[in-house]
Amino acid sequence: MKYNDIAGFKTPDKYIDYKINRLLSKEATFSNLYKIMFEDANNILFEYSEGIKIKKVTYGQAKDKVELYSRNITKLFAGYSHNSIIGIYLENSDKWIEIFWVILKSGFRPLLLNMRLSDEILENSIKNLDFAGIIGENCHINATIYSVENLEDDSIEDTENEFGDTVYVMSSGTSNNVKLCAYTIDEFYRIILQSRDIVKSNKKVKGFYDGNLKLLTFLPFYHIFGLMAVYFWFAFFSRPMVFMKDYSAESILTTVKKLEVTHIFAVPMFWHTIEKQVRAQVRQRGQKAEKKFYKGLALSEKIQNILPGAGQSIARHIMKQVTSELFGYSPVFLISGGGYIKDSALYMFNAMGYPLHNGYGM
Length: 362
Description:
Number of helices: 13
Shape: globular
Radius of gyration: 22 Å
Order of helices and strands: HHEEHEHEHEEEEHEHEHEHHHHEHE
Number of strands: 13
Structural class: alpha/beta
Strand content: 15-25%
Strand order of the largest sheet: 2-1-10-9-11-12-13
């Protein structure tokens, strides 16, 4: 969906200002944030490939599910007090987004369970909490567990509840010592409000391809980077997200090209892996091809230093033999975060015409 398809807004800046001002005009609550995030009901929330077809779901369709499910979750957890904690055990999907808001809308607090951690670690992390249960799939934790299908009864009457006030996010647990970080509405507002300054200082971040801006949901929403930078930062402005079938290299590259993804945010390991693959493939083509590749990188870097705007397009043309096999031509803004990224990776991607930026922290 194009920004100028939204009545009255001809540029991304005007639409961003409108949304930010809407947020500032209301009391800082999850309830008001929810209403503003889903008010552009016809905008596409997410896309995914299903065979030769591309499936799309709008913000309005997702909101209808939230309204339905929130009636049922109140019934399922009727014995628990307001602001009790309910865990989400789901991969990135429409279901994850819907259940996240269902828990908040029903007066509970969502805990974003890290699905890469063992059942034992997860059980230890919740044992001292006011924990009501889990909504999820393929979950074997010792707790009350409901599937999303348990929330699909449309015969229950709607009830108004005060929104939950906190979201709990788990640390990565690399040392088996998981920390729970509590984020209130203030933290979410700060992240969203920073976006106006970011898009003014870096014009590329609001870049479009063929009239669209789409984000690849590579990072899991239960990770703080995925939650804030991938989901909230883009969903607040009613932008589409693209889901993948799986995390294989083939699935990622195919999805980016087929659905014309414009933004990719990932951890350094992702970029290092692709860098290694690109350099290995070039090497396999022989010494002449390898020499041509590195000369092309050096030339495109020089051109971009002289012509920062047009240089990116020229660089992709120079490196088209590689870029056409990699992400294609749609990506306009990439971010690496969560750890150290090698200079060689930053150099290679930027020299090929893919603007890769490095950032960290809340």
